[in-house]
Amino acid sequence: DAGVIQSPRHEVTEMGQEVTLRCKPISGHDYLFWYRQTMMRGLELLIYFNNNVPIDDSGMPEDRFSAKMPNASFSTLKIQPSEPRDSAVYFCASGPSSYNEQFFGPGTRLTVL
Amino acid sequence: AQKVTQAQTEISVVEKEDVTLDCVYETRDTTYYLFWYKQPPSGELVFLIRRNSFDEQNEISGRYSWNFQKSTSSFNFTITASQVVDSAVYFCALILNQAGTALIFGKGTTLSVSS
């Protein structure tokens, strides 16, 4: 298996623009997680899905953030409009259950100017 | 509430030294899982180990070993004979055995191994 795939790997955009991050989980994993990593706040869980259904989105910082999982092999995290404070590395991870190890993608480094 | 504390923000050692990374967790649940992840300079997060709360047996994998002690709520990680390639940020994490809960990460310990 190729592991968790994320795209793009790097994204530079200007404040106010819409940003869409993409994730393909490992086949057969029922759980998908979106995390954000910053120097100040460390690794934060934004939202996670079980069988394509959002379970906990309490970590989503604002209404500007939204996430979808239209099918078992694809998820998106959208920021609209983006702001400089959204600059971070965004990780997607998948796992066979909520308490097994999670396998992380390579991350998307987002820079909002 | 659940919490993971990694009190050591940064550790610097010289190659071949042994180093222990501390992890203290808080939970009132009796069933939970503990993890260690490694994040090398390249940025990806690499799974190292998973331990359930009923298994206090220490584990050794090559130069890596883990000491789980429920009495002190600790899950410490020791690297024996450290190498430059061990330089990374190491995260300890906790999750409960309940539907609807999520992985809680510590702030991480940055390990620098110099030659």
Give a verbal description of the structure.
The complex is a heterodimer of chains A (113) and B (115). Chain A is mainly β. Chain A is 0% helix and 55% strand. Chain A contains no helices and 11 strands. Chain A has strands at 5-7, 10-13, 19-24, 31-38, 42-50, 53-56, 65-71, 74-79, 88-95, 103-104, 108-112. In chain A, the strands form 2 sheets. In chain A, strands 2, 4, 5, 6, 9, 10 and 11 form a 7-stranded mixed beta sheet that branches. The radius of gyration of chain A is 13 Å and the shape is globular. Chain A starts with a strand and ends with a strand. The radius of gyration of chain B is 14 Å and the shape is globular. Chain B has strands spanning 3-5, 10-14, 19-21, 24-26, 32-39, 46-52, 59-61, 64-69, 74-79, 88-96, 104-105, 109-114. Helix content of chain B is 0%, strand content 53%. In chain B, the strands form 3 sheets. In chain B, strands 2, 5, 6, 10, 11 and 12 form a 6-stranded mixed beta sheet that branches. Chain B has a 4-stranded antiparallel beta sheet with strand order 3-9-8-7, with no helix packed on it. Chain B has a two-stranded antiparallel sheet with strand order 1-4. With 115 residues, chain B is an all-beta fold. Chain B contains no helices and 12 strands. Chain B starts with a strand and ends with a strand. At the A-B interface, strand 5, strand 9 and strand 10 of A face strand 5, strand 6 and strand 10 of B.
